[in-house]
């Protein structure tokens, strides 16, 4: 049974392609060959090509390996770090602590 291809919207595909281009440019700025980066990352050159093309079937672990070799592994922490929409949703779902009602005084009875 073969692996099913990942289907992306055009906007998503462009984003992945841009990430791949950025990784390729970072590699070239460091004057590293594809062979060197692939070897150091422990991946094949064909996998590196997929990473640099923004192929959606590429494992995140492979992207992280390439980032590590380029000294950019901390950049992965920037993913979803700023989440204004999520924070607004979270804030609207927060319960406002209610104040406890004061204790009622029971009327005194003649018996007690």
CATH architecture of the domain at 10-70: Orthogonal Bundle
Find the structural class using helix and strand composition. Answer: mainly alpha
Q: Please write the CATH class name of the domain at 10-70.
A: Mainly Alpha
CATH fold annotation of the domain at 10-70 = 434 Repressor (Amino-terminal Domain)
Alpha-carbon distance between the termini? 82 Å
For the residues shown, what is the average pLDDT?
A: 89
Please trace the helix and strand order, writing H or E for each element.
HHHHH
General form: elongated
Give the full name of the CATH homologous superfamily of the domain at 10-70: lambda repressor-like DNA-binding domains
Which stretches are poorly predicted, pLDDT < 50 over at least 5 residues?
A: none
Taking the sheet with the most strands, its summary is: none
Summarize, please.
The chain has 112 residues and is mainly α.
What do these coordinates show?
- The protein is mainly α and 112 residues long.
- It has a domain of 61 residues: lambda repressor-like DNA-binding domains (434 Repressor (Amino-terminal Domain), Orthogonal Bundle).
- It is built from five helices and no strands.
- It is elongated, with a radius of gyration of 27 Å.
- The model has no long low-confidence stretch (mean pLDDT 89).
Features:
112 residues; mainly alpha; 434 Repressor (Amino-terminal Domain); 5 helices
